[in-house]
Amino acid sequence: MLLLLESDALMSNAYLGWFMTWSEAQHEYMRRAIEVAEKGRGQVRPNPLVGCVLVKNDEIIAEGWHDHLGGLHAEQMAIHDAEEKGHNTNGSVAYVTLEPCNHFGRTPPCTEALLWAGIGKVVIAHGDPNPIVRGNGISVLEEAGIEVESGLLEKDAAMQMREFLHWCQYRRPFVTVKVAVDANGSVDDLSKAAGRFTSDECLKEVHKLRKDCCAILVGANTVNRDNPSLNVRLIETQRQPLRVIIDPNNRIDTNSNVLSDGLETKHLTEDFRGLPATLDMLGDLEIQRLLVEGGPDTINRFLEEGLVDEFILVQSDSTHVDPVSADFDLSIFTQISEETWGKESVKIFTR
Asked: Is-contact 91 114, C-beta < 8 A?
């Protein structure tokens, strides 16, 4: 195998990350790049989260991240940060969580910025699966004489960019279901008017989740009973998620919040063609993460059709008088974490 690789003149060192031995310092630099990338969460889609740190003489001299759609990319921000701090970037090493782009989009190519700054070496966590980038950014840098290494903390970067990578592969959104239940697994209390039964602190966490999603989907029953707004209100955001309402019989109230508050809503009525087609349509709209907040009927349809990638179960210690039990089949899922949102316990499952 090694002989084959050595004889292949086209095989770039950038794709041999699994042969590399990385130092603890290199791990530290890339971990920091992944950490600063988080500062753009909820603000950059359909672009991925990307972070960059510049290192010179074994010290981080600058940091950058993709902060908002249309803003500087991580490499460009890091170079700007170095200039503002008075650092000479010539000969420095750039640690970047995603392969630098080499095309004109909302901003100029990051490869040009790295070349202009005199970067001597680029270490990349994960290649860019976008067809207009895939490998091209690395080859351009190498052809210009810049040393490139790839694969450092690749799995960590992939987890951070999972919705982007999922969309690139399937052209469908990553589907997250979030549902709240009482102490006995009930999703609603029919003995009283619709209302929230979780804590205010929990609701703020839900709004953080909404901010990180491109769209929120519910069915007609949820709109008619709860009249939800399905927006982000409790934390600052630069853009609201698209609301998607599944309503094949066109029976929701035209005065409901989702149809009358002026925010964008896709109301799927008689032309509704099923959940797979809906996901395809949303993928075409560059919706990379879809949050399903509907009732048990809608959630179970997604589960039965194998369309759920992540399931977030929020459990309150309250008890419903006239409960609506929801027996969700999570047998194909694995619990990956358990958290606390306010007064509620939260279990997160993935396929």
From this structure: no
Nearest to 148 by CA among 36, 27, 11: 11
Q: Where are the alpha helices (DSSP H) in 149-290?
A: 154-160, 162-170, 200-211, 220-226, 257-260, 275-284
3-state secondary structure 35-79: HHHHHHCCCCCCCCCCEEEEEECCEEEEEEECCCCCCCCHHHHHH
Region 86-92: mean pLDDT is 97
Phi then psi for 340, rounded to 5 degrees? -125, 120
CA 302 to chain CA centroid, Å, is 20
Question: Looking at the DSSP assignment, which residues form a beta bridge with residue 334?
Answer: 350
Q: Which residues are catalytic?
A: 75
| Burial of 30 from C-beta contacts in 10 A (0-12 / 13-18 / 19+) | buried
Mean pLDDT, the chain, rounded, equals 91
The CA distance from 266 to 268, in Å, is 6
| pLDDT exceeds cutoff 70 at 9 | no
Instruction: Give the Cα separation of 204 and 41 in Å (integer).
Output: 16
| Bridge partners, residue 290, by sequence | 175, 215
By percentage, how much of the chain surpasses pLDDT 90? 80
Instruction: Please spell the DSSP secondary structure of 202-241, one letter per residue.
Output: HHHHHHHHHHT-SEEEEEHHHHHHH----S--SS--SSPP
H-run or E-run covering 150: strand 147-150
State how far the Cα of 294 lies from the Cα of 176, in Å rounded to an integer.
Answer: 11
HSE (side-chain half, CA atoms, 13 Å) at 338 = 4
Cα–Cα distances (Å) from 192 to 158, 177, 179, 186, 197, in that order, read 45, 25, 19, 14, 11
DSSP summary character for residue 99: P
274's tokens: 């099923």
> How far, in Å, CA of 267 to CA of 245, rounded?
5
Tokens for 288, please give them. Answer: 């990379």
Cβ-proximal residues to 203 (8 Å cutoff; 6+ apart), any chain: 196, 234, 342
Contact 207, 228 (CB under 8 A): no
